[in-house]
Amino acid sequence: MPELPEVETVVRDLRPLLVGRTVTAATVGGLKLRKPWWKAGEKTHLIGQSVVAIHRRGKHMRVELTGGGCLLVHLGMTGQFTVVPKAAPAATHTHFVFDLNDGHQLRYRDARRFGSVELLADGAAAAAVLNATLGPEPEDIDAEPFRATVRASKRTLKAILLDQTVVAGVGNIYADESLFRAKLHPETRGEKVPAAACDQLRIAIQDVIAKAIEGRGSTIRDYVGGSGLKGGYQHEFAVYGLTGEPCLRCATPINMVRVAGRSSHYCPTCQPK
DNA sequence: CTGTAATCCTGCGAGC
DNA sequence: TGCTCGCAGGATTACA
Length: 273
Hints:
By secondary structure, the chain is α+β, with helices and mostly antiparallel strands. The chain has two domains: 4-131, N-terminal domain of MutM-like DNA repair proteins (Alpha-Beta Barrel); 138-266, Helicase, Ruva Protein, domain 3 (Orthogonal Bundle). It has helices at residues 4-18, 123-133, 143-151, 157-162, 172-182, 195-214, and strands at 23-28, 51-57, 60-65, 70-74, 79-85, 94-100, 104-110, 116-120, 255-259, 262-266. 44% of the residues are buried. The protein binds a DNA duplex through residues 1-3, 6, 31-32, 34, 59, 74-78, 93, 110-115, 153-156, 159, 162, 164, 171-174, 218, 220-223, 240, 260-263.
């Protein structure tokens, strides 16, 4: 579910609720998430540590701790990472509860368990791994390398946008919305895209992501921000989930196809192949 | 290289 | 009302 704008919203919500707080207790559920929460050899004791900072990189969140370690969190499809009063009712599928010294709890909830929470001893190393593994943040995409990457690829634009090593943080919703804004068909091959259109696509991604952050992300079903609030950008969608609805630009019904294994929504008139 | 399908899971809406 | 089916914001892996 959560793509860059949703994760950014969670981080912004959590920052004032988390930084400076100390973890006084931790409850870990028995069910497995995508990655083991604690690896043998990671000598880290969470209890008694305080939160120094919280950062986002792509769709990943990193909670820095006073001991130099960190919590690395990915929301997968249905993850929720919130700070709530300790007395707040316990929701189903809550896999982690961290007590804070101010009467609140940091909770991780994830129905489908496609997400992950990892406690790592070396926070700086974790940050370095993310930087080495992920492409640039949308706002940091440089025109020239982006053009080169797209035009060197035989893959579809949809597959390229979903590739986290090309751009970090774009998922299915914002890939479709960006392609609509750039007037490019999701099945167009990168190598067929003129340089000027690559620039338009880059700008479209940046615009869409920025606007979605302003709207606090999109709630289709499960997503909530760090304080439990839903997003609002789902009301701004031009194509995502709007199959059969008239295109905002030309009134042609929006079409849906599967590209790169994902449902892809586009206007057949505005986004010709 | 690229694409497709399967996999990890639960929940919900559509259709019968 | 109740059932089955397909699909869902992600990421990785195996295979053609």
